[in-house]
Amino acid sequence: MLDENKSSHRNRKRCCVIILGPYRSGTSLISRMLVELGFYPGEKNELYIATDWNPAGYIQRPDITKFNTEIILNAGGSLEKPPPPSIILKNCTPEKFQHLNLKWMLKKNKIIVKDPRFCFTLYTWLNQGVLKDFEVKIIRIHRDLKMAAKSSMQHYDVKHYVGSSLASATKVLESYNKAAEWHCKNMKLPFLNIVFEELVLQTNESVLKVSNFLQISDNEIINRACAVVNSGKTRIPNYE
Fold this sequence. Notes:
This protein has a single domain, classed as P-loop containing nucleotide triphosphate hydrolases (Rossmann fold), CATH 3.40.50.300. Helix 2 runs antiparallel to helix 10, helix 6 crosses helix 7 (166-186) and helix 9 (203-213) crosses helix 10. The protein starts with 6 loop residues before the first helix and ends in an 8-residue tail after the last helix. By secondary structure, it is α/β, with parallel strands linked by helices. The chain is built from 10 helices and 4 strands. The radius of gyration is 17 Å and the shape is globular. The longest helix is centred in the C-terminal third of the chain and has 21 residues, at 166-186. Residues 5-11 have low confidence and may be disordered.
């Protein structure tokens, strides 16, 4: 849990950006963009290591992924069929968060947290007051579900919890997409919708949209963010 007694941080205005989106929808790509825009995901050794699928890294913390998985399972669901956000909240007490070390969040004024499971669990994080010391903003990214499902079926890890067919994977990703949309509509937080295909094909415009949303105007920083996205998208088949 966060240590709210640290006076050196108490009066800082901190911003936490949550990335919402189904598996294989571009959450890692947009997260790398936000890192270039100055948002802190934790130290490199605290994140998932890079793989052939994401050679630049996932910008995702194993401890948060594990915790989100646990509260989904504790609520009687699975990663293939998570319960509604309200059921997850009902089955998750504040004490459960005591085992999650979030002190890394206090190191910077601007942080980013990314995990597709937040599509269902963010409601619990917000209602339990875990992020109460932050101005929380949501960036929701969504991709053509059939393409995301195809990528999920091929991914070494994701394929184990999206079902055994393209149809089942599409259905699973659709449920995550709808849950992300529900959070945007019901949480009364600033949010921005990003379409993966537009991020890939209209990179500069998409990066500017994100930069404006986050009130970032430094052209040098924005140009670096564009370069990161342009570099990452070269591994996406048929992106042109």
